[in-house]
Amino acid sequence: MAEVDSSALGSAAYGDSTSVFTLESGSMDLEFYRTDADDQEVSIEEREVTLRDGEKLLVVLSGDYASPSFEEFRIKREDLADHFRLFVTSVIPDGQSYDLYMSDAGAPFSAASLLGTVNYQGLTEMTYWDPDTDSDDFDEGEYVVYLTLPGEQTPIFESPTIDFIYATEYTMVLRKTTGAIQGNVEIDLVINSSLVDNYADAEATAQYRVYNSLDNLGSVTISFDGNVEESDTVTLQANTLSEFNATNYGDYRLSASTSEDASVAFNNRLVTLNQGESKAIVIYQDSDNKLTSLSFTESILPQVYDHQVQVANLVSDFFDVDFYFVRKDETIETAEYRVLGLDYAQTGRITLPSDYYELIAVYDDNNDTQVLLDRTTLLGVNEETNYIITIEKDVNSATGYVISLLH
Questions:
Q1: Are both 30 and 103 inside the same structural domain?
Q2: What whole-number distance in Å separates Cα of residue 287 and Cα of residue 291?
Q3: DSSP for 313-325?
Q4: Residues 51 and 123 grouped into a single domain
Q5: CA pair distance 392, 335, nearest whole angstrom
Q6: Which end of the chain is more exposed for a tag (fewer CB within 10 A), N or C?
Q7: What is the per-residue pLDDT across 314-370, written as a single tens digit (0 to 9) for each?
Q8: Are both 76 and 163 inside the same structural domain?
Q9: Using the 8-state DSSP alphabet, how is residue 259 labeled?
């Protein structure tokens, strides 16, 4: 966000906000833009806004990426002490309304109070059900938020405990998840800073997917054992990535065995799947040729213009492997995007703009000479998906190693 023909005011990633800016009252021309893969500014919207004394103007960007919507919400500022005000809006584009309930932390839904109905792109100030003699505003403290369909009494969303610790105006934004997990309702809590707290449903499911990086042990069977009622099994052929598998959140014991050699199995890994979380689990062989695993949480941000890519070093022969993402007008020395010094069994994350990249993996030997492990042709990182990149051993490769791009 910038003042037209002037300096930038701030930026915000998906699900985030800028800080509040204190500016002179009056009219101002604002431009909203993004930066593309060529570092060029792409204008999304120019609009004139009116700033008024004693008022906070919140501009919310939502809707479809091809035709985004800008909504202006105005909030009168008040002097608050030990109390807060709560405003609620929805950016869920299906137009579904929700009844919002709230209770003190620790109380059941039956003790929650109905605060009102939340409508798409409308802003409603909620009224506290238990005001003090000196204030009608909410008492600072811990609360739980519930959502139901209008007129119904069954929660479809229950927040974890939310600690409202600031004497300020909170704006609660309802939205649907995107990225690795799609379609869940979540809430963002916007205050005056650039820090936006996000809350998933306390009963939301989780999901996982598994990559079998082995190419010499046949199929691998992976089991997830939670409590008595929770058990999942996935069987994967060599160099295969599974689909996403939905499951209840919780702690799982991870086991893996191969169809060809029972001696390399393991059965004692712990994998925790939290509410609304997506994890990738990579099965590989350690330096003793035993099966082992690593896991990481996948991004739940939309993968439209930018892509959060997870990179894993599965080669026990080398530490400090460097990955370069080289565009057509770059070399590894000029490449803007790189993940450096990745140890064995370590993962790293990088955000790449949509573009075509040659992936190059190298390491520095004892003479500080760069040794090429593998390179790819130009590959498009431009789909709306979560990417995983690995470097692995491969007897069929000219160098003995291969880069895999998974999605």
A1: yes
A2: 10
A3: E--TT-SSEEEEE
A4: yes
A5: 22
A6: C
A7: 999 888 999 999 999 999 999 999 999 999 999 999 999 999 999 999 998 877 789
A8: yes
A9: S
Rounded-to-integer distance, Cα 128 and Cα 141, Å: 13
Statement to judge: residues 144 and 29 lie in one domain: yes
Rg from Cα positions in the chain: 25
pTM assigned to the model: 0.88
User: Where is the domain boundary, 266, 298, 330?
Assistant: 298
Task: Domain count for the chain, please give it.
Answer: 3
CATH for 394: 2.60.40
- Final residue of a domain: which of 153, 170, 200? 200
What residues contact residue 15 under an 8 Å CB cut-off, 6+ apart?
175, 188, 196, 198, 301
Q: How far apart are CA 403 and CA 391, in angstroms?
A: 5
Same structural domain for residues 309 and 404? yes
The whole-angstrom separation of Cα 129 and Cα 102 is 9
What is d(CA 287, CA 267) in angstroms, rounded to the nearest whole number? 18
Beta-bridged to residue 246, according to DSSP, are 207
Check whether residue 137 and residue 110 sit in a common domain.
Answer: yes
DSSP 176-207: E--TTS-S-EEEEEE-SSS--EEEE-TT--EE
State the burial class of residue 110 (Cβ atoms within 10 Å of its Cβ: 0-12, 13-18, 19+). Answer: exposed
| CA–CA dist 102, 98 (Å, integer) | 13
156 and 56 in one domain?
A: yes
Retrieve residue 308's tokens: 């959060």
Kindly report, residue by residue over 65-90, the tens digit of the pLDDT.
888 999 999 999 999 999 999 999 99
**63 & 175 share domain:** yes
* Amino acid (1-letter code) at residue 46: E
The CATH number that applies at residue 214 is 2.60.40.2890
Q: What share of the chain is helix, strand, coil (3-state, %, to 5)?
A: 0, 55, 45
Pair of tokens at residue 183: 């379609």
